[in-house]
């Protein structure tokens, strides 16, 4: 799945799912959404340089959800391309939802 922070002017929402695979219920999306959020560290410039943007931390998550399924995700800051409105930085998350009993390829560990 893909999740992105709200665009400038999208008041009342933290973000939105832009792609979700089959079999993920609305209840699971509500549980997953707060796990994908990203907050900038204190002291980040309003319009960070490319080097500053690349140096910002990324967030990695491995979570067991209420139905026994698992979520592996990465949230990272990205440049806001809205043309000058907003804070200059948004975030984008990629996540993989693993249904109960489904292993990662090759039985790899999630992290």
Explain the overall architecture.
There is one protein chain. The chain is α+β, with helices and mostly antiparallel strands and 111 residues long. It has one domain. The protein is built from two helices and five strands; from the N terminus they run ββααβββ. The protein has helices at residues 26-36, 50-55; strands spanning 2-5, 15-19, 59-64, 70-79, 89-98. Strands 2-1-5-4-3 form a five-stranded antiparallel beta sheet. Strand 3 (59-64) and strand 4 form a beta hairpin. The longest helix has 11 residues, at 26-36. The two termini are 18 Å apart. Residues 1-110 form the GTPase-associated protein 1 N-terminal domain. Pfam families: GAP1-N2. This is GTPase-associated protein 1 N-terminal domain-containing protein. It comes from Streptomyces parvus.
Question: What key phrases describe this protein's structure?
Answer:
GAP1-N2; 15% helix; GTPase-associated protein 1 N-terminal domain-containing protein; 111 residues; globular; alpha+beta; 5-stranded antiparallel β-sheet
Short summary of the structure?
The protein is 15% helix and 32% strand.
Number of domains: 1
Beta-strand segment tally: 5
Structural class: alpha+beta
Give the overall pLDDT as a whole number. 86
Main beta sheet strand tally, sense and closure: 5 strands, antiparallel
Please, how many helices?
2
What is the gyration radius calculated from CA atoms?
15 Å
Protein name: GTPase-associated protein 1 N-terminal domain-containing protein
InterPro entries: GAP1-N2
Pfam family, one: GAP1-N2
């Amino acid at each position: 799945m893909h999740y992105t922070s709200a665009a400038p002017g999208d008041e009342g929402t933290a973000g939105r799912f832009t792609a979700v695979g089959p079999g993920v219920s609305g209840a699971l999306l509500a549980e997953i959404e707060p796990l994908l959020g990203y907050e900038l560290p204190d002291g980040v410039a309003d319009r960070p340089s490319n080097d500053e943007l690349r140096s910002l931390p990324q967030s990695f998550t491995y979570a067991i959800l209420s139905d026994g399924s698992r979520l592996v995700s990465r949230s990272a800051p990205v440049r806001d391309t809205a043309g000058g409105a907003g804070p200059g930085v948004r975030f984008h998350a990629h996540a993989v939802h693993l249904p109960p009993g489904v292993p990662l390829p090759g039985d790899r560990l999630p992290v």
